Amino acid sequence: MINVGLTSVADHPSLTAGRTSTLADLAAIFPVVELDTTYYAVPSAQTVARWLRQVPPRFQFIVKATAAMSAHEQTEPHDASADFTALRRALAPMQASGQLASILFQLPPYFGASVQNVRILMRIRALYPTLPVAVEFRNAGWYLPDYRQQTLALLRQLHFSHVVVDEPQTPAGSVPLVAAVTDPALAIMRLHGRNVAGWQRGGAQWRSERTNYRYDQTELAALGQVAQQLARQAQQVIVIFNNNGHHDAAANAQQMITDLGLTYQGLGPRQLDLF
User: Fold this and answer.
1) pTM for this prediction
2) Residue 14, domain extent
3) What pLDDT was estimated at residue 275?
4) What is the number of H-type helices and E-type strands within the chain?
5) Any coiled-coil ranges, and where (predicted)?
6) Residue 264 maps to a domain
7) Residues 69, 89: Cα–Cα separation, whole Å
8) What CATH number corresponds to the domain at position 106?
9) I want to staple 69 with a disulfide (CB 3.0 to 4.6 A). Which of 65, 144, 210, 222 is the partner?
């Protein structure tokens, strides 16, 4: 099964005739969303309940771990234990309804392949022994020839879903696309676009420029083949389009759904735009 969706909620005007998109809008078209607001703060129980009310019962969520939990604040996981506990409690209704696809740990670029960081990954699993967890590395050292197989073996040992990344390939600051499944229940693809100049750009607009990219038909076809390859090894593959610097993610995601001949049952009702 291949499920295609988007990251973020309110930034897809092509789906809503220009108005701010909502979770209900996305759930009428896609079967899954990645929530990135949780990177900044653990959501309240009321917020999680509101998310669940806006979507149909089959809709799924990928939820980002907070910055402290994912080592962006250069703290050990036990130092972020309050966040781990609070997020587990907040997401309990989502897990109980079967709508929590995974908690995403997008690790920072300075989180390299080291004994200390292996211990951090093991500590994450110890803190979340039963929750679905996905790991996205942003340090290429984990994929060097001397470490790649050990990295994937570690993820299998910890029952972590490996996040397959497509992003610009630069001399520094990029990881390769490694189409490997480490959890037979779930594989995740995150597609950031291929804007090399934007990926390396600094300044006030760096965040939007990093993901300012529209995949062309040939690129989408190749990525669709990767998703199909993963689907032969995993029960579910979730493809998240994050190339939304200039609002291209929704169109690319819809095109992949069409190209792969995917249909989804149990989507939410379409919202009517009268004006």
Assistant:
1) 0.94
2) 2-259
3) 41
4) 10, 8
5) none
6) no
7) 15
8) 3.20.20.410
9) 65
